[in-house]
């Protein structure tokens, strides 16, 4: 830990010297620039005066821009790393708050070194580089069903709530200013209204940062979060409108202007959304064609998402709305069109960018504060702002929710309203906007900056810290971390259908009716246009869930196997009883993203305890012993192949005996799998696909062997001793052993052709129910590897016929089996 | 609201109906209007053709109509429950029972694999094969079936859905 601190201090020294160096250059060239990215093509003149070939040159001015950027990103992320090492700290403080503190420290160091704040969060960098990934990620991983379901509430809060906040704050401040509470300020109503509008907006970055650690229930989260995203439409409009009004001057504002302002709201908001949806359509269409370029496929999402942001910005529409709706719209189609790998890539990469951006933003929010040049202190203004923000937010939330509750099926309770009000966090967007202000128009810009910073710190840190205790104290309903079981999902879907029917019967156009209508429209048009034909087939909701659950189980199965030392345990598949009563290890701290129940997190990156408990029955200890055996047998299997020559000389018992172990082994395996296929036949799972003339005989044999085997299977594994006698095979079904024992010690039992043995695994990924049969993906392959190419019924080897044992049925069986084995050997 | 009263008087046993289901008179009137509009032949009964859907019973009269719809009323939590009264129709348990009956076609108190299969078949799209359906049904039963009798009883059904907010899932707002 101390080592890490050492490293960090070292890093800081590097940064400082580097930055001072750069500053030295810049100062000399009278090129004051705070922004990384300025290309010092205004290099110093030393290039022209070299007298000898320099082996190594100091190319700082070439690399300065990118170097600083990379360095700062690295420093921010290291800060985050440092915090995560100390879980005690993160439990109390929200991460964002800690990052701001580190920002202060760093800013202090830099300021102390340079006497001027060289680094700060530039609005351009923020709005064009740091914010888009966050918004894109928010849109793409938005739980659509809840978002749409609560869209009414979200819009009401976003639009009306924000307008109310802005207006009330502006007017309140204006009133207090007129009343003299703030002393002498060079400002006016319009300016205060502008300030109100930019600070009134709930900030998505801050909301994500704080709420992700608190895990409130989905409805609450989606309302606050949705509001923070959608209020950008209002914020942009208000900001631009008031900015324009300030430029026009007070007297020029008449009704026309105001009406134009209102119109511009609709244009900006709807325009932004339409741009987003247009880009969403484009992405979906494009991903239909990208089957051949799976490597670049994920990249398209990012480029298009970014373009949607920039296009809206270019058209002076709401960029955040555009980006959000692009993500919301395209996620369904894109996720189906792309391969699973690409989907994972997109998801993961987006999280990296979003999280990384967020970290950098908060660190720089801290650093930017350490700059005396911007600080203007006006007690009245600052305190009043803080107070008004709080009070008016709560007022707005209560009133609006009361109205909403008249129309909602699920009313929002008082506790939820409290959390909603308290969760109105302001953040970096406000900061970015305030920096955009023109100093000349706004004489009090620095005061506004200071106030904004203080508000941001207050909300993020204080409210962030107290959010968790508040949520606990109020006993807010928390997020259900458990995913629904398949049963639940099916029931949910049934209920949806039911409700549609009832609404239809009762003649009401309700929520579900609309959902159904949209669903039909989607099926008819959108799926056909926007999705691959193959992808469309696998669209079924319940099937997808089933598929995901199976994948997850397979992963956990493998994890469990590896945990137990080797996958050999998996061979004892008849013993392993996969229990679907999941016992979840609630170790979800590494999942910072938003997961609604509709959104199935595929835990490919989760390295925690597997969630499926595998109840191994009696054979746990035996299994470990038999693991060695299994490894041995595994080797033996592979050794089976190269044994052509044995056959040519050996018609006698001894040699056949030597084969017997392996033969036995193979036979037992295949018999077991035959048994399983028989069991699966019983349970109605897919029949073996390729059945030949052998089938009848083998079926009868299966029949006769099946019953006793089934019963004895349960007890069978206790008798390791009897198994131990026979051929030293570890995993053995004594039922068969008994049979064989009755005839002769080691009858040659050849392979059963695996295309009889398999229950035809259809090409889908569906693993049949574990209860019906325990089949693991690779088992058929293994058996296939053992498979001979061709087998025939005819016995053309008289010697073996002569050697066959006494009993009629056994002899028949042995002959055939022997024959097949012999033929197999010939073929090999 | 003269029309309300006149319509109400047309319906036999309306007070008992209201008490049993908890609908208000206005609701009952609304439902009656809807019933009449569905009942094109004015027989006083609804047949499957009227719904355009498959229905278990052959006909539905107004009382059954209202009773069934009453299951979808949003539940009220704040009333103190009078233990002597029968379970209200729109409580969570009743809703669950209603849903259970949808699955349990032969009314033996258990959802067997075949019944589940049938429901699944009607719900899922065409592209899913029979084997996959069966696998899904198997898995569903395995997840929910606690006493391992290969069928889902009402208790198991209820348990598997305890995380689901039935009140929300099975309610229609206008019926409040």
TrEMBL record, chain A:
It catalyses: Na(+)(in) + H(+)(out) = Na(+)(out) + H(+)(in). The chain crosses the membrane at residues 97-114, 126-142, 154-177, 189-211, 265-286, 306-331, 382-405, 417-437, 449-471. It comes from the Eukaryota. Pfam families: Na_H_Exchanger. The keyword Cell membrane applies. It is found in: Apical cell membrane; Early endosome membrane; Recycling endosome membrane. Residues 678-726 are annotated as: Disordered. Residues 90-473 form the Cation/H+ exchanger transmembrane domain. One of its GO terms (biological process) is sodium ion import across plasma membrane. InterPro entries: Cation/H_exchanger_CPA1 (IPR018422), Cation/H_exchanger_TM (IPR006153), Na/H_exchanger_3/5 (IPR018410), NaH_exchanger (IPR004709). GO terms for molecular function: potassium:proton antiporter activity; sodium:proton antiporter activity. Residues 708-718 have a biased composition (Basic and acidic residues). Residues 1-24 form the signal peptide. Its main location: membrane. Keywords: Antiport, Cell membrane, Endosome, Ion transport, Membrane, Phosphoprotein, Signal, Sodium, Sodium transport, Transmembrane, Transmembrane helix, Transport. GO terms for cellular component: brush border membrane; early endosome membrane; recycling endosome membrane. Belongs to the monovalent cation:proton antiporter 1 (CPA1) transporter (TC 2.A.36) family. Plasma membrane Na(+)/H(+) antiporter. Exchanges intracellular H(+) ions for extracellular Na(+) in 1:1 stoichiometry, playing a key role in salt and fluid absorption and pH homeostasis. Major apical Na(+)/H(+) exchanger in kidney and intestine playing an important role in renal and intestine Na(+) absorption and blood pressure regulation. This is Sodium/hydrogen exchanger. It comes from Esox lucius (Northern pike).
